[in-house]
Amino acid sequence: MPDTLPSDLAPGLVAPPPEAFDVLRRVFGFRSFRPTQDGIVGRLVAGHDAALVMPTGGGKSLCYQIPALVRPGTALVVSPLIALMQDQVEALRQLGVAAAFLNSTLGEAEQRRILAKLHAGELDLLYVAPERLLSESFLDRLSSISWSLLAVDEAHCISQWGHDFRPEYRDLGRIRERLPGVPCLAVTATADAPTQRDILRQLDLPDEALFVTGFDRPNIRYRVDLSDEPKNQLLAFLDDHAGEAGIVYCLSRDKTEKTAAMLVERGIPALPYHAGLPAKTRADHQQRFLRDEGVVMVATIAFGMGIDKPNVRFVAHLDVPKSPEAYYQETGRAGRDGEPAEAWMLYSLAAVVQQRRMMDKDGGSANVWVERRKLDAMVGYCETAQCRRRVLLGYFGQDAPEACGNCDTCLNPVATWDATREAQMLFSAVVRTGQRFGAAHLIAVVRGEATDKVKKFGHDRLPTFGVGAGRPEQDWRSVVRQLTAAGFLEVDVEGYGALRLTDAATPILKGDETVLLRVDPHPPKRGRAKRVVKADIVPTSDGDRRFALLRDVRLRLAKEQGVPPYVIFSDKTLREMAETAPTTREALLTVTGVGEAKLDRYGDVFLEALRAA
Ligand code: ADP
Ligand code: ZN
Fold it and tell me: For position 528, what pLDDT does the model report?
């Protein structure tokens, strides 16, 4: 039991009092605090302010929810996303906590009822949308309520430097002025240094109140595959995730619709989502993703903001996103509950080149160089032979161990080979053909294939003709791709994909530097497209079988109440129940995520289901 306080609290963090541990166990059913969570809870309970930058799934909500229950008064929580607010309040109510929200979705009568409760001191937490908070009528009320704390969720919205600036957030400083002595906690998952400074300044928080934990999401496994047969590769991937909920991102609207239709044809419950769909369809699809089990959302980047579903088990990218920032944010939607999740991407350099062409075409914008650099960083991530987590975190300025053990390059170390001679052959072919030809032609030249085009230009008479005949074409394509990705060759986007040398190629041509390339893995070809993918979890052990059963019980209870299944119990809780198969209420209470209120509400139903299983 965690009553012994951790001794390694960072400076400024405060050990929580015993009441906080009690609430953690009794109400939330958790055994211990996560790192940093404890110290922030301690600070808030003691009446100090804090700004916390912690990755998604780190457990930021608990940092204000527990102090809200320990301190007297009502906690005022500002949250910009209405859907998220409703689910959070529902989750708290399920725990037996007196929580409510005020936003534009409520009718007059309902609002009055909630305000009456607020004034009567009956609420532990009140979630408010910023525009509502700043209305004159609400501002007038502020001073007549006893507030336990002020929590600002998605605090990066306060800053113009943040990626999601909300003008109403600018006025939160005024709220602070009207709540003297009320401790404030600002939380966000994404804030770079300028955004962090802005949060502190606008909310009048001292520098010492800032706590930044790492960005790492250790439960997410990163994997990148070369795009070869994208449709079959996607089906094989989904086969590994049968019955699980996830998101498949595509760049175009058209592709989301086609992909979703293809999956549905194969019995997978998939839905499309993009900004071109009618608002009602979008809302409906989003709702089904949140409320049903195992829905695969095939979406453009329009899908994501405010998706707080904790048990998204995978995020797949069929196209390479425009920047590591976007990639990290999108993959970050997987595994918010801390359970194993997978981020998988299909990569094709040709598609990236196409993307860059579009970028340059819209271009002329001052940003085009920045955008190019970000896309290049994505290519670097795809082509790396190093630990992917290390490359990603390194991009965000965070140091990470050599190997994480939970990405494809760590799990299946990539073999490399010395391709200096091949690079020289190819570069020489590029130069001798006048830097005017694309990959296919250059490969034909080095491999000594006398195609019509080769003969027409007399390239069969070049000294480079046939020097690389010993290597299969596929190897050469890999060489061209990797040398382009590494910046030795550049694609002339106006010249129909002609390859040119960059300055970086010179030392290689001169023999001053060597080039190591990765050996492309050739994934075993899995079933053809006509194979039907099973849409359900196929239980392979007693635990799996019980899990599937408990999940059905959860879904039924959720439907009866019109709430998302995960507010009843998380996947982690169901997993633990399925593995340990408790038979008594006491034993059930020891399962993570089973607190007193949930034991009363659902204990018997789940015990009954376990007995029958
Ligand atoms: P964030 O807001 O940082 O994205 P949440 O507050 O939603 O994260 O928490 C993520 C998940 O982790 C939730 O399912 C939550 O119930 C769980 N969680 C948070 N703190 C703990 C803890 N101390 N022990 C076990 N689970 C926790
Ligand atoms: Zn790794």
Answer: 42
CATH number at residue 563: 1.10.150.80
**How many angstroms separate the CA atoms of 234 and 317, rounded?**
10
Is 116 domain-assigned? yes
Q: Hey, is 613 helix, strand or coil?
A: coil
Tokens for 65? 């929810």
Residue of the CA atom closest to atom 20 of ligand 1 = 59
Q: Is residue 57 within 6 Å of ligand 1 at its C-beta?
A: yes
What atom in ligand 1 is closest to the CA of residue 63? Answer: 6
Indicate if 182 and 328 belong to the same structural domain: no
- Ligand 1 atom with the shortest distance to the CA of 153: 2
Domain co-membership, 421 together with 405:
no
Last residue of a domain, one of 154, 183, 212: 212
> Which pLDDT score is estimated for 523?
54
Instruction: Examine the domain organization and report whether 72 and 161 are in the same domain.
Output: yes
CB 119 within 8 A of CB 46: no
The per-residue pLDDT for 374 is 85
Residue ranges in the chain whose pLDDT is less than 50? 1-7, 524-535
Q: How far apart are CA 27 and CA 21, in angstroms?
A: 10
Residue 424 lies in a domain: yes
Residue nearest (by alpha carbon) to ligand 1 atom 10? 57
User: 338 CB less than 6 Å from ligand 1?
Assistant: yes
Strand partners, 315: 247, 343
- Which ranges of 241-315 would DSSP assign to H, the alpha helix? 253-265, 279-291
CA 125 to centroid of ligand 1, rounded, Å: 17
The ligand minimizing its distance to the Cα of 94 is: 1
Q: What angle do CA 292, 569, 74 make, to 5 degrees?
A: 110
Ligand 1 touching residue 219 (CB < 6 A): no
Q: Could you tell me which residues are beta bridge partners of residue 416?
A: 518
Task: Tell whether ligand 1 has an atom less than 6 A from the beta carbon of residue 211.
Answer: no
Residue 530 has a pLDDT of: 39
Kindly report the CATH number assigned to the domain that includes residue 424.
Answer: 1.10.10.10
Whether 524 maps to a domain, the answer reads no
Q: Whose CA is nearest to atom 13 of ligand 1?
A: 337
Question: Global pTM?
Answer: 0.81
Q: Which domain holds residue 112?
A: 18-212
Domain harbouring 256, CATH code: 3.40.50.300
Query: Among 328, 337, 572, which residue has the most ligand 1 atoms within 8 Å of its CB, making it the best to mutate?
Result: 337
Say how many domains are in the chain.
4
Q: What is the Cα–Cα distance from 442 to 427, expressed in whole angstroms?
A: 9
Can you give the pLDDT at residue 364? Answer: 57
Domain boundary (345, 377, 411) is at 411
State residue 493's pLDDT score.
Answer: 65
Tell how far the Cα of 517 is from the centroid of ligand 2, in angstroms. 18
Q: Is residue 368 part of a domain?
A: yes
pLDDT of residue 365: 60
